[in-house]
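Action item from last week, closing it out:
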Amino acid sequence: MEKQEILQDHKKTGKTFQPPFTQKLGPLHEISWVKTMIPELFWIAIIQDCYGYQMGVEIITAFSRIVCKCTEGSSDKKRVFASMSSFGRLTPEEGFCVRKELAASGRLFEIQKALTDLIVFYPQCPLCFLYSKIPSLDDGPEHKLASLKASLEKIYDKISREAMMVQATAIWLAFDSDVLKVSADTSLAEFPEIEKYPHTELSQRVASSIRASLFMFFIEPHYPVSSDWPAYFWNRGLEIDPCHF
């Protein structure tokens, strides 16, 4: 038998040896649910709050498919459009294509209706391209802000049902984009069981797998790790409303 060299499957970069996992997925970064994931996935929570989980997922799925269609060919790798910052990478032409396709499908108004309050309070939101004209804060600002705060509060605890439905939707977009594939003997293969969370043991195992799997979509090419949206989200929040501990 041929003697295998130590670290032969590692790639040397300068004085550093990169294991196969890092070569394929890139360097790992610590991702905080509160600091990073909440700002990035908040748009999903808002749509689901507006339309309910089932219809919300239908709208979000249609949106994701159109974005994938309009960005086809712009990258040699399939991407998952689940994080807010992933939409910030769209070119003006791609953004126009998405808005046009959404309008033709009848979904544009549904998404605009759900996200208007977010856009009003966060004018630098990466999803502003969905509006030909940025909406203004004309009436009922207190009510609109209270609605956003309520949606945010529901998902602050990442194991709450609302937060899990948001995370499950993000993973579903990875499945639907044909980016994520899992073995039949894993908990994630029982993905539909998440609808019963947290009432069954299986749904809790599926939820655990979802939370663990979500991290891989917060690295390149699915997520621009240098994005300043999470910091802007929280800083802007302090400008809008004082923080109470």
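Closing note: The chain has one domain: 33-225.
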